[in-house]
Amino acid sequence: MESTQRATLPGGPGQVRIIGIDPGLRRTGWGVVESDGVRLAYVASGLVTSDDGDDLAYRLRAIFEGVTSVISAFQPSEAAVEETFVNENPRATLKLGQARGMALLAPAMKGLRVAEYQPNLIKKAVVGAGHAEKKQVQAMIGFLLPKAKFESADEADALAIAICHANHRTSPQARAALALREAARG
Q1: What is the pLDDT of residue 85?
Q2: 65 an active-site residue?
């Protein structure tokens, strides 16, 4: 497992720290931002990678351990993960789903609130269009988080997921969904 990261550490009262996770079997992007409800600040971003030569179980372990390590290092209070889109190759979709499972499990095991967002909603939250190109998303990340230093599309996507969550976490729909989940837990 390899994990790369770059960080700028802002802080302040009333801010919530959010980790966005873009799951992938080869490269899982992650990005951490802080939001006070209006302003966003870049904290860190990077990649968790798995070795193509390893068996699937060990690759999944690398993803889980890598994301867990990032969560321990940056102490986010909430997490957001991109939902899986189904592609033409069912085997690839299944493997992506398993990697996504690790990306969901790691923050859940740390007790974080975990939200999930569809790719089109993430793009719409960042760019304003649900079918935006990756270059448009990256350009808007640079605009919204001028201190962000990302070297891959996976990191930019993870930051976009965190931004999407920052924009949606206090919406009436999010509050209603949270209330339903808490009521179901008893």
Answers
A1: 72
A2: no
